[in-house]
TrEMBL record:
The lineage of its organism: Archaea, Methanobacteriati, Methanobacteriota, Stenosarchaea group, Halobacteria. The keyword Membrane applies. The keyword Ribonucleoprotein does not apply. This is DUF7991 domain-containing protein. Residues 1-102 form the DUF7991 domain. The chain crosses the membrane at residues 7-27, 39-62, 69-91. It comes from the Archaea.
Length: 104
């Protein structure tokens, strides 16, 4: 039986992974000046970071036992990756539209 603490732990994992996916997607969009570079890097490198975060947070006791590795990867990696990337691409302005001061 899943307890309320396990559900809260799962939501913490989902929230942290979604934020990390959005930040990494924004980082790749700002740093790479190619058309496909940010998408390729976001799809290939971000899941690796999310898997490491899941292993660390799951090892710390957060989240319930989801049963299979496919369920864990689907729920804690693919869903936050989709949420983070969609947040950055659809709700954040393009890096070209943001005004940055000249003197840093």
């Amino acid at each position: 039986m899943v307890s309320a603490v396990d559900i809260v732990g799962l939501f913490i994992i989902l929230g942290v992974n979604s934020v990390v996916a959005a930040l990494l997607t924004r980082f790749f969009r700002v740093q790479l000046n190619t058309q496909w570079g940010p998408i390729v890097y976001s799809v290939l490198l971000t899941p690796l970071v999310l898997v490491i975060l899941v292993l660390v947070m799951g090892g710390a006791g957060l989240g319930p036992n989801l049963g299979s590795a496919a369920t864990v990867l689907g729920l804690t990696v693919l869903v936050p990756l989709a949420l983070g990337m969609s947040f950055d691409y659809f709700w954040q302005p393009s890096p070209d539209e943001v005004e940055v001061p000249d003197n840093l």
